[in-house]
Amino acid sequence: MKKLILRTKICAAAMSISSLIASPALALDEVIQASFFPYANSKPAFDGLSVGLVIDQSNVAEFKDIIDPAFYSFIEKGWTSITVGDTSSLELHQSYIDASAKGYGNVQLGKETGEIIGWQAGRPFPAEPSNEDARAGEKLAWNYKYGYNWGDSAAISPFYWKYKNMESAKVERTIKFNFHFLNFKGRVIQQPTPEIIPNPSDLFRSIYVQVLAPDDVRNTQLLIHRAADDLKRDNSWLYLGFQRRVRRLATGQVTDAFLGSDLMIEDFEGYNGRISDMNWKYKSTRYMLMPFFNHNDLTLDNETHEDEDGYKVVAFSGKGDCFPNITWQLRKVYEVEAMPVNESHPLSKRVHFMDAQTFTIPRTVSYDRKGTMWKTFTIGQTHPDHHLPANKGSGVSIDDAFSMIDVQANHCTTGQFKGQVDPELSPPSMFSVQHLRATGS
Amino acid sequence: MRKNTQNMKFMMLKVALGLALWPVFQQVSFAKEARVNGYFENATYIRDGVGLSKFRNTLQIEAEKSFKSTGSLSNMSVNGTFRVTYDGVYDLNEDDFGNQAGGAISLENTIEGPGSTVIFGEGLALPFTFDTANHPNEGMLVLGEHLHPTDGGVAFGVPVRPCDTDSRGCLNGYLDRDIDELRFQELNDRLDFIRELYFDFDLNLDNGNIISTRLGKQQVIWGRTDLFRVLDVINPVDYSRNNIYDELEDIRIPMWILKTDYRMGATETFDDLNLQLIWNFDRFRPNDLGQCGQPNVILDAGCFFRGMNTLWENGGTVANFAGGVVATDFGPGQIGIRQAEMPSWSLSNTQVGLKFEGVLGDLGFSLNALNYRSQMPSLRGGIPAQNSFTGEVAAWPALIAFDIHFPRVQLLGGSMDYYSQGIDTVFRLEAAHTSGEEFANTLKENLYSESNVLRYVIGVDKNIFIPLLNDSKAFLFSGQIFGQHILDHQREERLLGAAGIPDWEENWTATMLIKGWWMNDRLSPQLIVAHDVRAEATAIAMSVEWIFSDNLKLTGGVNFKLGTGARKFDDCRTCNPFSPFTAAFDEHDEGSTLGLQGFEPLGRFQSGPIGMAQKEDELQFSVRYSF
After folding, report:
1. Which of A271, B291, B375, B525 is the S-S candidate for B175 at Cβ 3.0 to 4.6 Å?
2. So where are chain B's domains?
3. Which positions make up the signal peptide (chain A) (predicted)?
4. From the CA atom positions of chain B, what is the Rg in Å?
5. What is the mean pLDDT of chain A?
């Protein structure tokens, strides 16, 4: 990695020469450097913006160009404010970068949306998107889907979801989960790589969810098997504690509110549906304030969670306690629109603001069928080196707090994470139907 | 003494298992996590025409303690669920369900005109009759009177008070609760307040496979269907709690069971493979059908049994018996139920099952085999009884004198589910073939016969958005068809009507569940409809659940029935057991029914649990506080 950085830094310093030479190897390095190290040479800046600045109702107009329209309206109304942090490079794991370099040039889109050819691991389309490319948005969507995300496996344990009335700030419901993720394919670090064998259904990823509280839904478990074939729907099973049985779920209704929250199943992690369910449109590359921070530098929630590690979760404040108490960084962002193929979909579009370095989706604004803003989703990202000691060096952009606000219903769901990149917490045996039965009580 | 010895053996087995586990506990004695939670719930039901039918207060505590993995052992935990209830209905409505229930009765005596009656004890006295001094006319109901008139059929008196107040008809070891056991149903000699107590552990094998074991008092659930029990027959069920309408999780009777899964995980072909062994080493328990005098007595069977045992022990007046029109006074030991043969504990009386289960992409499947005892009682005739006319004691053909048995049953079955992506719908199928089950059969000398039975359920689940009603959450539509085919069914048309097995040879019950959610899933109305096709009886249960907070949940609902209630079938008044005294004519063969019909006692098998509960419409409210 260091060699690569060194080499790419040299290349960047000689950019004008390299562009003239344009050898394939050099082009690869340039592409990888630009994709994974966008802040290697300089940090972005904006007039009047400085670290520690608080953007609130009084000065938000000065920063309209670097704040998404939904969050701008929240600050304008005095619902919340943004504290600016120092832009930091969140460098993904070298193995993922190496896999991206190895695959560069070998991956291409298929004929239909949702088809991809030649991908093994890593970022499938690391080159900068172009407005000239009609399928640039789709490529960015693939970069998100095959992103480093939580790495090869991880757990959010525990994971608190709170349903809040935005007017009264009353917490109507608190659900405590464990979430576990496991990549079957595209694995780059944890053995086996690049794929867990046997994998008879050619799965790409699996998600296992266990509800710990409150009592009426305790021990509800959800298992999702996501096929590598994007055109195939997920297979899902639900274990209901009060029934003590595993039920196979119909997974077509991904716009269903999940356990009564303000999140559709399709909203998870920014977008949790099939690539083929959307028409993707790349809008622009921008520099925007995004919810990236160092967890250990925050003033944390003293009430919701504390364990023997001394770990505390992110606190919330603002209107209805719907906004995470975090800092925001000026970062390179791809603005991508996703319009549902299905005309009966309750949304007319989502506007995703994808972080260019990590390909996470920290901000999304959703619009109803009439084109009116409906929901806005924030997923706060912490640098792994400033979180749990075990996460240091993992190269994972850790999801650390979320807020889904239904602006029409004046309601929000907030999430507080303890993300742990530890393969011991998410063994393959956990992602089987029998595990639900064995664990159920 | 024999029972005590067997019980001692059973206790020793449990102690031995506990000792066997002790080293494991010692090795993992350092705690990882502990959890304790519970709830208090009040359930208050009001029954049409009765009044208060339930005032049940439940305290349930659940505790779990996990242990850190050690060596090849992982996922170790001890789980306990403890439940105590107090149902105040026996104190607040004692006229219907408590110490003051029942009263003096009269039995129909059609010979004096339709609807005419005689006072209990004043029927036609047979040569060997009974004495009301030993069997007073108090604290009784007429069998089936809440559901149907006698209408020319057979009927008799049924004591309804708790067994410490009135011991008549209380079968030893089966449906013989005293008032405190009714009030506090879990506080009994089977320690039902320990609802579950088991130890979990995984043994991780070198080949990557896992042996998962759960040992202790537990529920083991097989199958993929709701409400119906085709494969889900390992634990018996307490129908006295709320008939068929409570969640099975709350009404399964946990048993001491060893459950071991050999988890093979994914293979080259299957996404998941598993082999499960079940050993139910607990002393046998049947379904709790409800004791006569309780608010919920499914099929009214508990009343039939209690009335019949009363007849055996004390004799009694039977409506419209002699000649089919004369209320008749039988002496003790002539007709009725003599005893319930409750299987005692022995190794050979334990129950064993195997399940092979897997997932193949969109398809899930299981193959199941179980050797168990029927949890439903079988009434076997042919016991020695006194001839009412001669006093001779012998086994008389087709005499309505029985012992209750719980026969061995062999079950082979399977289940599958399939997700059809094209129509975004899940299909569920569950089927089982049993041999060894016994059915009432008025064509047989001992009044029962064995039959193989095929049961199945086909279920369909689909989530459907109805934007006009809710644009953020789909409604769940879940439909099921349950079919039962009695493969060795026997029925004949006799001189006065059909005789044989009263159960339908083929029958189907359909259910539909529609459930919606509002207010972030905190408000959830649901509609459940169940229709018994042959019984032509329908149950409709509507309820609304409101989760006020994480701790407080309120539920209100109504449960009502439509359609046909009681049905008639051959009641064996014309079975001619004491020929020639009971022969209808000279050529009437001994032990051969003519098929005279009445509501009691066998019509209940045609009405089914929905038809037999036609007069049990209820308003139901519950409040649950979780902590």
Report:
1. B291
2. 2-87+193-280, 106-192+299-332
3. 1-27
4. 26
5. 92
CB-CB neighbors (< 8 A) of A435 in chain B: 263
ipTM (interface predicted TM): 0.86
Strand partners, B265: B273
* Partner residue opposite A215 with nearest CB, options B269, B426, B626: B626
The helix or strand, by DSSP H or E, that contains position B20, with its residue range, turns out to be: helix B2-27
- Weakest-pLDDT range from A13-27, A315-329, B107-121: A13-27
- How far is B211 from B202, CA to CA, in rounded Å? 6
DSSP label at B389?
T
- Round to whole Å and give the CA distance between B29 and B51: 53
- Segment A206-242, tens digit of pLDDT: 999 999 999 888 889 999 999 999 999 899 999 988 8
* Helix A94-103, helix A24-36: angle, nearest 10: 140
Q: Angle, to 10 degrees, between the axis of helix A2-13 and the axis of helix A94-103?
A: 60
Two tokens, residue B162? 């708790």
Question: CA–CA separation, B434 vs B440, rounded Å?
Answer: 17
B214-270 pLDDT, tens digit per residue, is 999 999 999 998 889 999 999 999 999 999 999 999 999 999 999 999 999 999 999
- From A349's Cα to the closest Cα of chain B, the distance in A is 15
Q: How many CB atoms lie within 10 A of CB B187?
A: 14
Distance CA A270, CA A149 (A): 11
Burial status of residue A67 (CB atoms within 10 A of its CB: 0-12, 13-18, 19 or more)? buried
Q: What is the C-alpha to C-alpha distance for residues B57 and B102, in angstroms, rounded to an integer?
A: 25
State the Cα torsion B210-B211-B214-B215 to the nearest 10°: -160
CA distance B613 to chain A (A): 25
Pairing type for strands B326-330 and B316-322 reads antiparallel
Q: Minimal Cα distance from B78: which residue of A?
A: A441
pLDDT at B166 over 60: yes
Q: Where are the domains of chain A?
A: 1-37, 153-439
**Rounded distance between C-alpha atoms, residue B309 and residue B291, angstroms:** 13
> Pick from B267, B361, B550: which is nearest to A174 by CB?
B550
- Listing DSSP states for B299-332 in one string gives GGHHHHHHHHHHHHHH-EEEEEEETTTEEEEEPT
Q: Do B39 and A215 touch (CB under 8 A)?
A: yes
CB contact under 8 A, B473 and A235: no
Distance CA A299, CA A312 (A): 9
Whether residue B221 and residue A245 make contact (CB cut-off 8 A), yes or no, is yes
Contact B361, B271 (CB under 8 A): yes
Q: Do A429 and B219 touch (CB under 8 A)?
A: no
CATH second-level architecture of A153-439?
Clam (2.50)
Yes or no, beta carbons of B521 and A259 under 8 Å apart: yes
pLDDT tens, B389-416?
999 999 999 999 999 999 999 999 999 9
Q: What is the DSSP string of B184-200?
A: STT-STT-TTEEEEEEE
The contacts of residue A407 (CB under 8 Å, 6+ apart) are: A70, A373, A374, A375, A376
The residue type of A178 is N
Q: Which of residues 338-367 of A touch B (CB under 8 A)?
A: 344, 346
Alpha-carbon gap, residue B549 to A213, rounded angstroms: 12
Q: Does A369 touch chain B (CB under 8 A)?
A: no
Cα B626 versus chain centre, distance = 29
Contacts of B549 in chain A (CB under 8 A): 172-173
pLDDT score of A80 more than 70? yes
Rounded to 5 degrees, φ, ψ at A431 are -100, 35
Q: How far apart are CA A365 and CA A69, in angstroms?
A: 8
Q: Do A245 and B626 lie within an 8 Å CB cutoff?
A: no
Chain A, residues 231-290, CB within 8 A of chain B, namely 232-233, 235, 241-245, 247-253, 255-257, 259-262, 264
